[in-house]
């Protein structure tokens, strides 16, 4: 299933009329229609209302809402409401709530509050999804199912403990295999019975939330939790499918969110959708990367932008307004990277409770006479005019960056060599270097075959700390056959159980990279060194410095400082088969990465554009045309030197080559026919 | 009842002879008498001693102490000792201790440790108060009852849960009303039975201690806790009144302490008393404001300064000494703002346990040969010489600032727009601007009638976030009849249940203020803008910037920076009826507030004095005379230009008009006959 | 027993072959032998393996390991494995795990995880030690027993509560005595039954981990915990002694580690051993002090350096590499201060779990071709060549600094006067001043007799806050008979129960010091003053300033700033009997301490050397020779002016007087025959 089947750019978002008296509903219909909003995401948090007790379902209000939306020609994304438990359930069946990292069983509160392994929760959750599908699955304008909401979190209750042991048995068969995998002889942790295994929280093997006595155990608990919650998703999905065979089913993801292995999740989802909430100081490149990741988890398929705020957030420390034009530019940035819907949280701003200061299309002022409403409506009209030709367009990337939740978890559980090492930050540093040159990038998993990798000129895998089975072989084969691979310090260190490859770093990548890393030095924050590329270009490096020996590779850069490892290799290149493998043994400052990416652009001749930091140029392709999004993400006027004549689908004007002036937050969407 | 009935300036403080062998008592009597100390506050923490078991009271030691004090002509403030549970009670009746925010029931420790809704604690507490009143209520020199000590804190135990549900039933009658009030349909929180409601701690709807899924619930729990603890107070008060009809009853408050709604408390107290513990870096204006608040909670009545330290604190991070003369100047600062007693914690310094490094009149040196003792004694003599003419004098303020615990709680539970927003800080910014000009200010509650407000030229209500029933009408009527009202950003947003007024900010104040606030922008800490008053005076603003439309008001100041809202109104004035309403839409730096207050002084002609930052001039009035306290709060020599001839009651010298030189920490108390 | 009986410099460390397949063992033997490693510390974390259930012991693997080591001529330090519980024990007997400060009983995880008062743990622990001794105690190459590992931590479970009450009865006999000792009448804490006493954790009288309502209780709980865990040690020691009468028994200590009173512990240990893990920014003087403390707890006896890392740590925030030569220089620094063994954690680097990035002699590269291996082997050869003449050599110090765990605990529980006051930091400031002049220092307990003290020219006792019984008398007698004593602010304040001495600070030291401290002023961090020595030398002081009166002493320095205490004494000297007593009433900056120490060197003529900060010169003595360790601790080339001709035992060359050049991390070990 694809976003194409929506047959329009869905433009709408979360809508909770059940929280309002009915007279408000009619006003909403008028205002939303005026803004060319064509979609409403409903029933996200109504469980307590539609199921007031164990045995009773009451869809009367939901019926009314759906009727009203239908009459007013809205497409509906229908949620299942299981993102927050009803209070009665928590009170009558205490098992349905979670036990936290501190070891405390919760009573009732918040959302994302269900124990994923509670049989009672699972029973009620899938029953509700089935009931909803039975009632509404046949409706034409129910165009998408939205299961639960922003899944995440952990539980450490006794039901989870029991399920974890079952999960372990399934994955390892024997306790011996578990002991082996987790290297439990360390600190005398050998298990003789399954009942001796407890979850890694404060009462067990955790050392705070970010560290663990037995990282293998903690990583497996992460996998188990991601799987457990995914099972909640598939429970409901399967229940829906009993009554509705063909409406796409999704749940809203959250970019680089740590808890869930979205590559694994996306396999179970018909469409990916996600919620984009950058802060005032989030780099533009980080938002772009998050979009690309959300496209990447589903193999490049366009996705739904399920939520963004029209202007203001409420839960960030400093909730600044989106500037005039900025919501529009951010919407097109999403689209540029693969979004085929533009949806908001939410259509009408809440009156009370924790999100009441979260912006909405219809604000507390309850009028269309607001800047936010006007900008939303203008975008609605514009998208309406854009038609559907962009739907399904793909991103043509020759560079891929690997992203992997197992690595994310494992690297951040590692005790040593430095507390500054954060997985997403490392990925983003490389992504940003390509982004600054407007080179298209795909985010990919680590388990692609050499054949799947072959479409890329270059595969970049920063901190590929954990090498799972097959990964090294695939990469080796990919490079041997002409591919190019770049990785960094803290790569090739451990297997899927977090056990180090013995015999010299970077373990199974050593031959491919042609280097042996003997030691890595952690620099404290106040210390940095320099590297020199080609005996001429000096750049700062910090945090970690590998001390390595060339085993076939040649040095691209050497440490020009660094005490006893001065003049040893810092960045290397290895000719391997028909391809090349690069190794970056230290954290290069942005200018160093720019230099490196510049060299690669020279080598591969990728499409790229020199722009100021604020401007991005992003391309999506249909069979017969390319669509270039030229976006000024910032508040200053910018210029771009443009080389491809085409048609701006927004201004409906032809665009010639030459200098383009870009007002603050300006967007051009230039169609270039192939 | 008033402080006048003490017939002297009580000068003394906490005294715990039961912690010492008797030979020490006699030495104390000599030393304290030498310092002209005329009062002792006793029995504050003796519960374990005077009630060694469920059935036995033993007042023998207390009898001895009271006899000794009486023989030595001391007035007695008699505490009830219920500020700390006896260990035997906690051990035998575990319900009497508290369950904390983390969900843990405590065993025994600290003080302020009783669950306010424990029936066992309530039973024993009021029984003890009654027994004490029966024994000592008839004594002439027991001039005041002091119930418990520094009440505060929270409990989340099952007794409190049960009591909370009863409290809710009383306030809301039906669960529907609760669901409505708390907007529980948000995140599907709808309650169908009272038993589904749990307190907002870590196991419930809290999001940390400062945030909440359902702010309405958290605010109500604050109200409930304040009421529950107040009930502990009235339990004991009523028990005392059965045996003692006319001795004033108080408990010691703590200024801007967040936990208790002191306006509600003061209604139940005969006299207000409070404990003043500024840090080395507390602004003088903050201490002044705290005094004014303590006067304000009881409608302007003079109060007792129940505790201050003679010199050093122990529980602050850096416990610096009060400089020579500073204890005296701070005592007179208290008096200037309404204190009619000067009391210390404590008369003799503890030997052991957590407060042993807290200063006292008689220090560990156990002698009168200390600076602290000499300064105390000198003040004792001076106060003795001052007589009683100041007792009961009132503060003549034409400006009032509203302070409200519901707003305090609600504003600080709000998620968004910025984590920097703190209630007391906002109040203090305005207070300090008037203080810098030595303009007298009353701190008042929000529920005064238009008639009660009419005595003020100007009512200032910073961040009047929550508008409870009647408040807007009172303010509107007050202004219509010639009053002047000033409020700020984050005002008029929510009703008493924290639900937003729909239809445009500032809600019920919109017409009065003549502005519509469409948006508010949160600036991160590194960002600030400028506003310009009258096209000429530029001042910095930061944190929050309202974007507003004039609806009858005129702009007093506009943003001269601020990107898209540059040149829009930042500060406005609205002529309304016979009065005016001002709105300050951003956080002005001190100089901006000074400019604004300067304009108001010009407009209203209030009595004011230009002094350096360290000097304050404060007035109290009796029928026939005004008393001016001219205080140098700082360590440098200062000058004041003085315009009212009178008599300095401290130096006993006539004071002519002209320049007055003020030594460090100097005080003049000038009587000007009317 | 002494380190002499090892008859060699043990050179080896922790070795865990049971965590590896056997083929690895044989490689290890080859590599370790190549590095002249002669010792292995084994069986540190094998409890789960050697006792797989309640009734079964399985020493087969351990037998094999010992056989292999024996065949390869290794000396063995044999651990008892009780540093980490087996999972089966935690699961079947939940009492064996700990209840934490938060009040939570733990399931299973980590290490140091046994409740010291669990009868089940105690039973199994001592049974295991006995079994091991029975099996292995007769072996010639088992040269030392190593009980458990890095003992520490606290437990607050019900078994501990019960044991604490027993401990209290033993120490105080009556509850009255407890109430008296803890001054429980404060805040009405009087106990009437033993069952009312609870441990001072979050559910009791703790105020966070660093503060307490009743410091006397918290200090006693610290004593009780140290004693409880010591009892675990003596349990096992006594069990071993039933089967092995003469092999030395130790456990590895941790320098200034707070939890355990190592002076008390050392009395029960045959030899002291310890683990030295400085961070990249630990001052050289701090490491030196830690060594001296470990020598001091056993009255000056040489000790074992049980653990250090060959290069990299893993659990520090920034785990930088030891520079080439630095592991060697740090090994000799240990030896210079009394170490007679050089041992590593560990011989082979772990594959998995939390310490896998902790360095080892054989790294993950699994080869001798690493810098770390080469440096280790070089040191092994060098030590081999050094022979045994250094074994047992003593440190000839004329200066002693008192260190005391009761003071450590008590001072840091004190509420006030400043949160900046940390015990070890205060000790180190004085230690560092002597270290900078290369003056030898002993760390001694506070309970030495005047006769024992008499060997020192000067006894320094920074922040001698708590004066236990006899201490003041001993010091007074020591000075009266010609000794010299120096102490500082925050001294002489409380007795062993943390109750203040009434009558004037510094209490029982007042006569000896000839001063009365009336007040102490805490300066906030942004504030500092100056003191002037002899009207000429000005130095900064901060944090705390005593205000004192001379009572026989004369002022060596006065405050030249300090507002009202300007020109009052800051540092004093009192001639007392045939000796002198010095008092330093404020925190002097390093230059001030250097000046003071310089004056003392002039007065006493101690052996000292002017060196750069990085260089230390340290002496150990045998009967017929002195051994001078000249160590460049830093990475720069240094020079030293050397005045004693001798023989460098490392280079095997004669050393003449004159300028010695020192390469980075260079070491000279010069034997000067007496």
TrEMBL record, chains A, B, C:
Residues 615-670 form the Beta-galactosidase C-terminal domain. It catalyses: Hydrolysis of terminal non-reducing beta-D-galactose residues in beta-D-galactosides. Its EC number is 3.2.1.23. Residues 14-384 form the Glycoside hydrolase family 42 N-terminal domain. It is an enzyme of class 3 (hydrolase). GO terms for molecular function: beta-galactosidase activity. Residues 397-603 form the Beta-galactosidase trimerisation domain. Keywords: Glycosidase, Hydrolase. Belongs to the glycosyl hydrolase 42 family. PANTHER family: BETA-GALACTOSIDASE GANA. This is Beta-galactosidase.
């Amino acid at each position: 299933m694809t976003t194409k089947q929506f047959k329009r750019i869905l433009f709408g978002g979360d809508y909770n009329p059940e929280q309002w008296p009915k007279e408000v509903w009619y006003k909403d219909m008028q205002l939303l229609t005026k803004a060319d909003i064509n979609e409403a995401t409903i029933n996200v948090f109504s469980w307590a209302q539609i199921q007031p007790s164990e045995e009773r379902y009451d869809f009367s209000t939901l019926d009314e809402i759906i009727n009203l939306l239908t009459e007013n020609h809205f497409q509906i994304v229908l949620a299942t409401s299981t993102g927050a438990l009803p209070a009665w359930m928590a009170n009558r069946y205490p098992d349905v709530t979670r036990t936290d990292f501190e070891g405390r069983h919760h009573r009732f509160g918040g959302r994302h509050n269900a124990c994923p392994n509670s049989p009672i929760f699972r029973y009620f959750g899938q029953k509700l999804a089935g009931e909803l599908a039975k009632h509404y699955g046949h409706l034409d304008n129910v165009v998408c199912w939205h299961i639960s909401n922003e899944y995440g979190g952990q539980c450490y209750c006794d039901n989870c403990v029991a399920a974890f042991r079952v999960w372990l048995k399934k994955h390892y068969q024997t306790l011996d295999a578990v002991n082996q995998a987790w290297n439990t002889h360390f600190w005398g942790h050998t298990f003789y019975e399954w009942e001796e295994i407890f979850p890694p929280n404060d009462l067990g093997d955790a050392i705070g939330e970010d560290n663990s006595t037995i990282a293998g155990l903690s990583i497996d608990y992460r996998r188990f939790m991601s799987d457990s919650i995914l099972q909640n998703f598939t429970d409901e999905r399967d229940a829906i499918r009993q009554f509705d065979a063909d409406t796409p089913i999704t749940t809203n993801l959250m970019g680089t969110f740590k808890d869930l292995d979205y590559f694994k999740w996306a396999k179970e989802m018909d469409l990916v959708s996600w919620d984009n909430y950058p802060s005032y100081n989030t780099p533009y490149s980080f938002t772009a990367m998050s979009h690309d990741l959300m496209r990447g988890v589903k193999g490049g398929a366009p996705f739904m932008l399920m939520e963004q705020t029209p202007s203001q957030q409420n839960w960030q420390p400093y909730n600044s307004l989106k500037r005039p034009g900025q919501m529009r530019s951010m919407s097109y940035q999403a689209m540029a990277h693969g979004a085929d819907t533009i949806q908001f949280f939410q259509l009408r701003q809440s009156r009370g409770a924790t999100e009441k200061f979260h912006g909405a299309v219809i604000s507390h002022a309850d009028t269309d006479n607001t800047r936010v409403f006007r900008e939303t409506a203008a975008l609605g009209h514009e998208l309406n005019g854009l038609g559907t030709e962009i739907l399904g367009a793909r991103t043509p990337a020759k560079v891929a960056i690997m992203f992997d939740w197992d690595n994310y978890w494992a690297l951040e559980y590692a005790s040593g060599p430095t507390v500054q090492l954060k997985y997403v930050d490392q990925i983003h540093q490389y992504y940003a270097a390509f982004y600054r040159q407007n080179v298209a990038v795909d985010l990919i998993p680590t388990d692609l075959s050499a054949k799947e990798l072959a479409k890329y000129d270059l595969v970049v895998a920063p901190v590929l700390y954990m090498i799972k089975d097959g990964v090294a072989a695939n990469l080796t084969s990919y490079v041997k056959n002409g591919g190019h691979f770049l990785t960094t310090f803290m790569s090739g260190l451990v297997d899927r159980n977090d056990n180090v490859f013995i015999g010299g770093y970077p373990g199974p990548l050593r031959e491919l990279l042609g280097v042996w890393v003997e030691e890595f030095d952690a620099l404290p924050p106040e210390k940095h060194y320099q590297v020199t590329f080609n005996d001429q270009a000096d750049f700062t490096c910090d945090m970690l410095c590998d001390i390595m020996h060339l085993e076939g590779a040649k040095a691209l850069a050497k440490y020009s400082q660094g005490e006893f490892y001065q003049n040893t290799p810092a960045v290397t290149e290895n000719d391997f088969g028909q391809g090349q493998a690069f190794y970056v043994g230290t954290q290069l400052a942005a200018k160093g990465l720019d230099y490196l990416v510049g060299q690669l652009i020279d080598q591969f001749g990728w499409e790229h554009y020199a722009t100021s930091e604020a401007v991005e140029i992003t391309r999506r392709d249909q069979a017969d045309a390319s669509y270039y999004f030229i976006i000024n993400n910032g508040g200053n006027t910018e210029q771009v030197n443009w080389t491809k004549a085409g048609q701006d689908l927004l201004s409906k004007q032809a665009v010639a080559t030459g200098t383009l002036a870009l007002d603050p937050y300006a967007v051009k969407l230039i169609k270039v026919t192939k």
